[in-house]
Design brief:
24% helix; globular; Alpha-Beta Plaits; 4-stranded antiparallel beta sheet; 79 residues; alpha+beta
Length: 79
């Protein structure tokens, strides 16, 4: 499977237990959010999203740094 670098932003700051749940990712805290980043395949991305849901965290954004969406192009409209 192809792997892609993702940045996943959630509301709030993560405690020790939540940080441990994402031990394979880089965890960076911002004033009101936490950014989880790392290289994942599609299955890995779904595992991280499932873990976010299981921990009751609020998902803000999932992005691929360097993709057309982050370079100023219009993203594909979903739904």
């Amino acid at each position: 499977m192809t792997t892609v670098r993702y940045e996943i932003r959630v509301v709030g700051l993560l405690g020790t237990a939540a940080r441990t749940a994402f031990s394979g990712l880089t965890v960076e805290e911002e004033p009101a959010t936490t950014v989880l980043s790392g290289t994942l395949d599609q299955a890995g991305l779904h595992e991280v999203l499932d873990q976010i849901r299981a921990l009751g965290l609020e998902l803000v954004d999932v992005s691929q740094p360097g993709s057309p969406e982050t370079a100023g192009e219009t993203p594909f409209p979903y739904g």
